[in-house]
Amino acid sequence: MLQFDVITIFPELIQQAVSYGLLGKACEQNLLAVQAHDLRAFTEDKHRRVDDQPYGGGPGMVLQVEPVVRALEEITDETKKVRKILLSPRGEVFSQVKARDFTEYEQIILICGRYEGVDARVLSYVDEELSIGDYVLAGGEFASLVTLDAVARLLPGVVGDEASLAEESHSQNLLEYPHYTRPEVFRGQKVPDVLLSGHHQQIKEWRQAQAEGLTQERRPDLWKKSR
Ligand code: ADE
Q1: CA 94, CA 131: separation in Å to the nearest integer?
Q2: What is the C-alpha to C-alpha distance for residues 162 and 183, in angstroms, rounded to an integer?
Q3: CATH top-level class for 2-152?
Q4: SS3 at position 75
Q5: How far apart are CA 105 and CA 76, in angstroms?
Q6: 13 SS3 class
Q7: Ligand 1 pocket check: which of 88, 95, 116, 146 to mutate, most ligand atoms within 8 Å of Cβ?
Q8: What's the DSSP call for residue 124?
Q9: Rounded to the nearest 10 degrees, what angle do helices 141-152 and 21-28 cross at?
Q10: Does domain 168-226 have CATH number 1.10.150.120?
């Protein structure tokens, strides 16, 4: 079973968020475990402060190295295959390939950055810095949840219908074709005839053409990779 440990100053946010939907069900069924750890529990400061002013001056506060490293050392399970990840906008960008790679671990520790940044000495205690995209969040919490969600649904048994994962990996690097369900007509918009035809081969070809068309139009970068 894959164990996620999240180091954060908002443990309730993480614990709450993973209690919903697919993630919540997967946790209940012990297909994965998520534990949020309060960074403030690892500081020896009597005011439980975890940040301080940057050496050299400048705006904002910096997350201190000490509580982070102490938390890492306490949480790491030496008997497991562990990946230690610092969420940060400077990291390598997250992807489906990375999500799949992460499923090979037994323990994944996600450190949520905060404030203007994290003391650079933390980097020598982690395996990688990971960004979820080219924008800056106020903290790593939502980035951790994105990572967790994307990895969890790839674990065996989490997505009920394995066929949907198989189809996804078959159509790697293509955007998904459009989906429809009842009603057949909504305010004058009709479901494409081919989907009502019952011709499985034609449906398959239509979906493939839609996926390819959308990808060429919207994501030329992905389209190049898919060829
Ligand atoms: N923390 C702040 N911005 C982030 C991002 N884009 N990805 C991961 N962690 C972050």
Answers
A1: 6
A2: 27
A3: alpha beta
A4: helix
A5: 13
A6: helix
A7: 88
A8: G
A9: 70
A10: no
Cα–Cα distances in angstroms (integers) from residue 176 to residues 7, 11, 108, 227, in the given order: 34, 34, 29, 16
Q: For residue 132, give the ligand 1 atom closest to its CA.
A: 7
CA distance 186 to 73: 57
Pairing of strands 107-112, 117-118: unpaired
Full pLDDT tens readout for the chain, 227 residues = 999 999 999 999 999 999 999 999 999 999 999 999 999 999 999 999 999 999 999 999 999 999 999 999 999 999 999 999 999 999 999 999 999 999 999 999 999 998 789 999 999 999 999 999 999 999 999 999 999 999 999 999 999 888 888 878 777 899 999 999 999 999 999 999 999 999 999 999 999 999 999 999 999 999 999 88
Please report, for the chain, the start and end positions of each structural domain, with discontinuous segments joined by +. 2-152, 168-226
CATH fold match for the domains 2-152 and 168-226: no
User: Which residue among 10, 111, 131, 146 is best mutated to probe the pocket of ligand 1, counting the most ligand atoms within 8 A of its Cβ?
Assistant: 131
User: Do the beta carbons of residue 121 and residue 166 sit within 8 Å?
Assistant: no
Nearest to 155 by CA among 29, 35, 37, 36: 29
Instruction: Please report the atom of ligand 1 found closest to the CA of residue 113.
Output: 1
For residue 37, the SS3 value is: strand
* Structure-token pair, residue 110: 């996600």
Residue 178: both structure tokens together? 């459009």
